[in-house]
UniProtKB/TrEMBL annotation, chains A, B, C, D:
GO terms for molecular function: formyltetrahydrofolate deformylase activity. Catalyzes the hydrolysis of 10-formyltetrahydrofolate (formyl-FH4) to formate and tetrahydrofolate (FH4). PANTHER family: FORMYLTETRAHYDROFOLATE DEFORMYLASE (PTHR42706), FORMYLTETRAHYDROFOLATE DEFORMYLASE 2, MITOCHONDRIAL (PTHR42706:SF1). It comes from the Bacteria. This is Formyltetrahydrofolate deformylase. Belongs to the PurU family. The keyword Hydrolase applies. It holds the Pfam family Formyl_trans_N. Residues 19-94 form the ACT domain. It catalyses: (6R)-10-formyltetrahydrofolate + H2O = (6S)-5,6,7,8-tetrahydrofolate + formate + H(+). NCBIfam families: PRK06027.1, PurU. Its EC number is 3.5.1.10.
């Protein structure tokens, strides 16, 4: 293929950009049917990523970004037509969103600031495609650091003896008000009831090591074992603690000269980067869950 | 989206797998037109990656992997029909290949063995999708290491005083016989005439540093400058020495304890990994050149 | 070597911890002489790193961390004795510092906040061993973000037409008051006179790419060239712009799906990590300059 | 510290280079005593790395590389004197080796070639400081690939039903003949008796994931779980399967587009790099075991 000049990038107004995320049993003609529907509706495909779990007979997933003049007004009709003409015949689950309507997000934290502040700071820079509705913490410590970002800081005391009342108060704040809850080093266990009733996905971050060190003082154990890598994993929250579908992972090299404090500091660096990537991808509608895994399109 | 069981991967026979790589000016309806053509032809899209250089008015590129029973027999007709019905109306360049027909590759080397042997070894393991037609070297040193792989080793002496004759002999060996030439630490400059007449793409590997160290003894200079990273770049060869479109890059961390020999050894490790990735991607028809860049789909 | 129980780490009070950084022509007996001096003075070596540029006849560098009860009171005598008994006979340059006396640091910035806020935030967490005396900016924009950290924000307008006056005002603020100046995306050139008169080292951060893209809009150029890595380099400032001794470098992988904005965002992530490592190492007296390189011990 | 010219590196003859690796309870005066001993013996310290597990009261480890004219002849006396004058008074374990006497190594493998060939190939290039005495395999498959390296290939059938006889034959070959056994994807369990009687350390390589996938088909499980990193761990072998002290670890990024075969291929790349680093460090006497960890000096 020959060469040509490279035009400088231009950006269309977000208000006319739509995202279509879908999943169904794989079968011939899917891409053609979806593309034809969008084309007939006057939408131009800007980017399209698809994935099939196997070459035949598996699950098909697709993320399509399209431009359509007047999307906001036409959105409901588009969704209805897609459901009737494509999704139903193909037995498809789908989600249609507008880039101009950022997700409403609550961040829950305890005393550690690194993940929380990094999310707030990135969002202020415009790096994350979200609107932070509130920060909920079971400790008052971080209020002064959160409020300058113009975000409500809500102190809801919580520990294992008052879990039920605490979760009720949290649910009153969250239910219907947010599209995503981010656990940014929130150090309380959440009950299955909470996960069901909150009505939106939750993303959590935790450290990860090879081998795994469970229980108390993982960084001390990791140092005693002489690990050469310290990492973090961001995942969707399910009732199985720290076992939900992995969204993103990364590691940093360490050696015997690093103290336990050094490991904790380096681990915190990885945690905030990994969590921010996971939140960004979720807010951009890039992630399809499939069984206990995620596909990031 | 809910969860379900994850089927184990199955692989279709390579003989019915086709790859369609294409590029054209972006405009509405492209994905729909291509998908409809393949669907009508009885081909099922297994994977599809596309990229547009800008949201509107840029260049559109797409790589489609499809399954089509009896592809080998139907290939010529399919190509002709695609050209007439899609490529011509949309002003499209395209390439249609069969996964069952691996590219014929020549490897050119000098005295250093690391990139050459790594390619031969990976190919024997079935990791690279290629058929190595010959190894050409301007030194006889590596013959005993190459021949056990069942690959012809051809010694064509070459240095700057006999470049023209050497290149003529090399062209006699290569022209029409190979689809790709890999320069695996081939330490002679190739003329513009050679690049034109060989009639296929060439991939080269070279070390890379930040900042760049040109001329003799780059590893010694890099150590004297105290660089913290040593890397390698694989690129298509153009007449501008080491300036062709970048296919892949990677680096490894180094520090003051590494001697010049250590840097060379670590650099060699990066070179062989980076070169093998570039060759694999080329052989899988993943790479679209666009101006002086590559898009790896 | 057999195994035994691993005691949990304990930390001595910083007030009795000293650091000795030295450099001289290599010759037999250096480590022995230095160790004997410290041992005789009642100091216990906690850690010792040394490096020789060549196996014989090169330059010898050593960083020693030691514990000595009552160091603060004894420091001046210790320094005098070391100079007379060791440094002078061996023709040695050295620096003796106390861990309990953090370096006084000024941060200079312009409009971009990522490096500046990351340093302030890490310092508040206790990750950096420094005392931030002031932030100087040629723009007022970041005042509200800096002052909550309890650090003076000083607005000194500067651009190329008023460089001389601006630098005079900056020198009035800095001279004698700080041990280090960190340029955290300070977008003005500093004159040779400034570098001489400020009387302390300066550390700068800049993006880095392979190949290098000089001048305006480097991220746009990097995207047009299809680079696969985006990085950053922290270095000491010399009169040669961006050419001073490299302290630290790192990179992050990118691909064709990243927009220019994505590259800038990912580059900013690397910049803040790389700069913070360089500042930490400097504040811990880990860095020996040697010619145009640094050795990080 | 000011700047000066940087001399080019020169290398002393290996025959006069010694390595002293030691470990003892930490106490004041250790570095001074060791340095004074070497200095008095006419040895010049080329490099010295030490580590203490805690600032006081922990374990002290040191690796010293020194140059001493006529080392080979003087070695036994030097060892005896060091034992009497330093090791005994300080309760020290130590090992004194000569760089000119590479370790004798046996490699055990099964059917997979990637780790085995990489070690042989690196050793032929002079990258590893070892002499390969033999390759032992429980399958005949790799004979033709091993013998061109000039290394004996010994086929000792082994599976769980004939473990005792197989291990007896292996021990007959190994005992007294080698200083290190490398398990380069040797797929049989070795008994505690074998580990005791072989009389030298063993290094093993295995894949590693986050989270860990135990049992059969780990790469398939890893893909089903959607891991974003695939890695490898090299460790000393103890009776606890895959639980011995970690020497080195590394990872590579993967995503949903990678098939199980891709993961296996990328994992193999990491395995061979990680194993070769571990073997190199062991052969250079860099590794001190301490409890269930290693310190790599």
């Amino acid at each position: 293929m020959s060469t040509e000049n490279f035009p400088s990038a231009t950006t269309l107004p977000a208000k006319d950009i739509g995202r279509l995320l879908l999943r169904c049993a794989d079968r011939p003609g899917l891409v053609a049917a979806i593309s034809a529907f969008l084309s007939d509706a006057g939408a131009n495909i800007i980017s399209l990523d698809q994935h099939s779990t196997t070459q035949t007979g598996g699950t098909f997933m697709q993320r399509t970004i399209f431009h359509m003049a007047g999307l906001s007004a036409a959105r409901d009709a588009l969704e209805r037509d897609f459901a009737a003409q494509v999704a139903e015949p193909f037995g498809m689950e789908f989600r249609l969103t507008e880039a101009a309507k950022p997700k409403r997000v609550a961040i829950m934290a305890s005393r550690e600031d690194h993940c929380l502040l990094d999310l707030l700071w990135r969002n202020r820079r415009g790096e994350l495609d979200m609107s932070v509705a509130m920060v909920i913490s079971n400790h008052p410590d971080l209020a002064d650091q959160v409020r300058p970002f113009g975000v409500p800081f809500l102190h809801v005391p919580a520990h294992k003896d008052i879990r039920a009342e605490a979760e009720s108060r949290q649910l009153d704040l969250l239910r219907g008000n947010v599209d995503l809850v981010v656990l940014a080093r929130y150090m309380q266990i959440l009950s299955g009831r909470f996960l069901t009733e909150v009505g939106c996905p939750l993303i959590n971050i935790h450290h990860s090591f090879l081998p795994a060190f469970v229980g108390e003082a993982p960084y001390r154990k990791a140092r005693e074992r002489g690990v050469k890598l310290v990492g973090a994993t961001a995942h969707y929250v399910t009732e199985e603690l720290d076992e939900g579908p992995i969204i993103e992972q990364d590691v940093v090299r360490v050696d015997h000269r690093h103290t336990v404090d050094d490991l904790r500091r380096l681990g915190a660096d990885v945690e905030r980067v990994v969590l921010s990537r996971a939140v960004l991808w979720h807010c951009e509608d890039r992630i399809v869950q499939h069984g206990n895994q995620t596909i990031v399109l």
